[in-house]
C-alpha cells in the first residue's frame, strides 16, 4: 500500500493541454451531434453565450481581489482577512470554470465549423453570430479561470516562477 504524502493530495494547477484536449473532444462531439440533427434544433440566439462573458468578468474581478490579498499576506482567520478555506473554494471554482470554458469553446467551435461548411443554408448563416459569441466566451472564461487559479497560489508555492529563477543546487 502506498503512503499518502502531501504531494499526492496536493491540488495542482490546470494544464492548458488538458483544456485543449477537453475542447477538442467537445468540439468533435458537438460537430457530430449537430451534423446529424441540425434540422431538429431551434435557431441559436446570439445571447446564448453571453453568460460565459459574465462569468469571465466575475472571475477576473475575483482574481484581482485574491491576488492583492495573497500578495499582501492578508490570508488568515482574523477578522478582515481572507480565510484560507475561501481561497481553496475560489481555486475549485476556477478549476471548474476552466473546464466549463474549454467545453463551451470546443462545443461552440464545433457548431461554428458545421455552420461555416453549410454556407448555403440561410439558417446556418443566421446561427453563425451565436456560435462566434459562444466560442469566444468559452475561450475568455477558460483564460480567466486559469488566471484566477494562478492568483490563488501562495507566494512560497514551490511551483511559482520565483523558484524557477533560482539556480539549482549542484
TrEMBL record:
Instruction: Give the keywords, sorted.
Output: Membrane, Transmembrane, Transmembrane helix
Question: Which InterPro entries does the UniProt entry name for this protein?
Answer: DUF3180
Ranges that cross the membrane: 19-38, 50-71, 92-116, 128-148
Please indicate which superkingdom the organism of origin belongs to. Answer: Bacteria
Enumerate the Pfam families for this protein: DUF3180 (PF11377)
Q: What is this protein called?
A: DUF3180 domain-containing protein
Q: What is the species of this protein?
A: Gordonia malaquae NBRC 108250
